[in-house]
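S.,

As promised, the glutathione run. Input:
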Amino acid sequence: MLTLYGCNGCGSAAIEALLRLYGEEVACTRWDWEDEAAWSNFATVSAQRQVPTLVLPDGTVMTESAAMIAWLVQRFPGSTLLPAADSARALFYRWLVYMSVNIYTPIGIKDFPARWIADAAAQEALQAGAIARAQSAWQLMEAELAGTAFLLGDTMTALDVYAAMMSRFTPKRPWMARHCPKITKAALETEKNPVVNEVFTFHFGDLDA
Ligand SMILES: N[C@@H](CCC(=O)N[C@@H](CS)C(=O)NCC(=O)O)C(=O)O
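Predicted complex:
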């Protein structure tokens, strides 16, 4: 069985939802963001100490949310969670890696600026810069999307689940709704899926709030 390590309200929510959408048997180990003891224990599983982390039945340890999604979609050929058309697949992988690099990474910088710069005053400026960078990355993506019901057309794909989860992180939904209406519309549509809705409600609380 797969084991997914995650923390409540973190990036593991998207992987958890996708594993459930695919009907994969998975044991989920989750803890609160503030639970330092849980993070320390987790370091014995992955020295990288970041979630999501997926452990395969043979003990293989996998990190990187985008890699997990790329790995998952190829395990279930024919599923609509990966678009069928070649050009839509190109965009699927483009935006998957784009969000991981250009949005998830700045969020990590905002969360842990001391990892990047020692000076306390500079950390505040770095956090502001990281948030601004994530915002401009969202806006670039928004400008290039067609504005269909979901990000890549009329069918929900794994990319929608990833984007819906990430759009709950800083700069968060009210900002997203104002500046990225196409992405927000797709995220709201994605969260109507009963499996996504249940997993995201567990992680993020009342989705309408
Ligand atoms: N590149 C990683 C980023 C994962 C990441 O930053 N996860 C956050 C939670 S959402 C985390 O584990 N933060 C704790 C830390 O970095 O110490 C991925 O895409 O999976």
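Residues 86-192 form a domain with the Glutathione S-transferase Yfyf (Class Pi); Chain A, domain 2 fold (CATH 1.20.1050.10). The CA atoms of residues 30 and 138 lie 28 Å apart.

- D.
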